[in-house]
Design goal:
This protein is α/β, with parallel strands linked by helices. Helix content is about 40%, strand content about 10%. The protein has a 5-stranded parallel β-sheet with strand order 8-7-6-9-10. A 4-stranded parallel β-sheet has the order 3-2-4-5, sandwiched between helices. Strands 1-11 form a two-stranded antiparallel sheet. The longest helix is centred in the first third of the chain and has 18 residues, at about 100-115.
């Protein structure tokens, strides 16, 4: 069943078709296609007829060989070569990706889904050790990277904060990176100074992943955010091309939006509404970069006007820890909070609500409101769940084992819940 879902998702992605358009292409009812895409443990899941499977496989073969109208010949270079940084298997910036390499990474992440869901296990990274160096506070990202590496069969050694690091004794980034590279097989680094992770990468040839460098970038978060948007849109029959994205909050220091807007700009005909107080607006160089790629950009400080008609609302918290001395928040009043009353009033029934987390749930923070927790449009937990297959895919590609995963999988020996959270919606398990 998982192979069936992967095959269908792959075909829809390559052909750039919604579920409605794809079912028309196959000559089947949309309802039939939906049942073929359901998880194998769903009571309504159905096996795709052999004739349909052969037809989908033929479509994919003709697309790959360039026989399908508008298709492009696949790049023969391995994915790791195309996304590497200066010839090394490292992920420092989203600028290393084009749309084709993103789609290919998403295909690898799809293969990882049953492992991430505790249905299958693999040991392709058995014996490999990850060095997790977080010099800045983190819970979700640090644990997510560690869990992803462990689910591929590896083990993790980590350190958090400067206090427990030799850098507190004056050791340079170069020395720290080179020493750690003698101990571990891959590094994940978070550091409060922009550009610092690139310094770690220059001192080693092992895989290095940027887990956040101050107000700079957070590439893996942006990749999982885009993957989430694609999966949410697949469920409701939308394409990313031509969509309306509203980004809300601290767009000046929020590194997740810096990376995400770069990735989204690889798609066609998007409209971005950037909603922030004047003191926290998106950096001008990013606005110019996106505009030069033909997208529409609107900037406003009015939350109500900015959210109207958006397909995706991406909210961020205020990054007070990055403010310069004496810098204050201006205009971030309670009416700047994305809450259920506002969403019901100005957003669509199928708007996707996202947030990179953590949410600041203190009353004075005015972050994404908890009164949306039971709204099916809220995708924040599906978003965090998607961090595991994406980070597994990144490790697998950078360490050269992505082709081994599918044939190495075996059933998990333990029983996991159908829904991880007690309040998860039924469709949380849909692909």
């Amino acid at each position: 069943m998982n192979q069936q879902q992967d095959l269908l998702r792959d075909a829809m992605r390559r052909l750039n078709l919604t579920r409605d358009a794809f079912s028309d292409r196959l000559g089947v009812r949309r309802r039939a296609l939906d049942t073929w895409l359901l998880p194998s443990d769903s009571k309504e899941a159905r096996a795709m007829p052999e004739m349909a499977a052969r037809f989908v496989s033929e479509i994919l073969r003709s697309t790959a060989t360039g026989n399908s109208p508008g298709s492009e010949r696949a790049d023969p270079a391995p994915l790791v070569k195309r996304i590497g940084a200066e010839g090394k298997p490292q992920l420092l910036s989203v600028s290393q990706f084009d749309r084709g390499s993103l789609e290919e990474l998403f295909q690898v992440a799809d293969v990882m889904q049953p492992i991430a869901r505790r249905q299958k296990v693999t040991r392709v990274l058995e014996g490999a050790v990850l060095g997790s160096l977080f010099f800045e506070a983190s819970t979700r990202t640090r644990v997510s990277f560690g869990a992803a590496f462990c689910r591929l069969g590896g083990t993790v050694c980590d350190t958090t904060g400067f206090t427990f690091s030799s850098m507190a004794k004056g050791e340079s980034i170069y020395d720290t990176s080179r020493v750690m590279s003698g101990y571990v097989d891959a590094l994940v680094v978070r550091h409060p100074a922009q550009g610092s992770v690139a310094e770690f990468a220059r001192a080693t040839n092992i895989p290095v992943i940027n887990a956040g460098d101050g107000p700079g970038e957070h590439p893996s978060q942006a990749i999982l955010d885009l993957y989430t948007i694609q999966r949410e849109f697949s469920r409701i029959g939308k394409l990313i091309d031509g969509t309306h994205i509203a980004m809300v909050g601290d767009l000046k220091y929020g590194r997740t939006v810096h990376s995400l807007i770069r990735l989204l700009s690889l798609y066609r005909g998007l409209k971005f509404t950037l909603i922030a107080p004047r003191s926290l607006e998106m950096p001008a160089y990013l606005v110019e970069l996106v505009a030069n790629q033909g997208h529409v950009i609107e900037q406003t400080s009015s939350l109500q006007d900015g959210l109207r008609g958006a397909d995706v609302v991406y909210a961020t918290r205020v990054q007070k820890e990055r403010f310069a001395d004496g810098e204050a928040i201006e205009g971030y009043a309670p009416d700047f909070q994305v809450c259920k009353a506002l969403v019901d009033r100005v957003c669509k029934p199928d708007t996707v609500l996202m947030h990179p987390l953590p949410r600041d749930e203190r009353p004075s923070a005015n972050d994404l409101s908890v009164d949306l927790n039971h709204d099916p449009r809220l995708a924040i937990f599906r978003q965090t769940d998607n961090g595991i297959p994406i980070r597994m895919a990144l490790f697998a590609v950078l360490m050269g084992v992505e082709k081994q995963v599918a044939r190495s999988m075996r059933d998990a020996s333990w029983v996991s819940p159908a829904h991880v959270g007690p309040d998860d919606a039924d469709f949380d398990g849909l692909d």
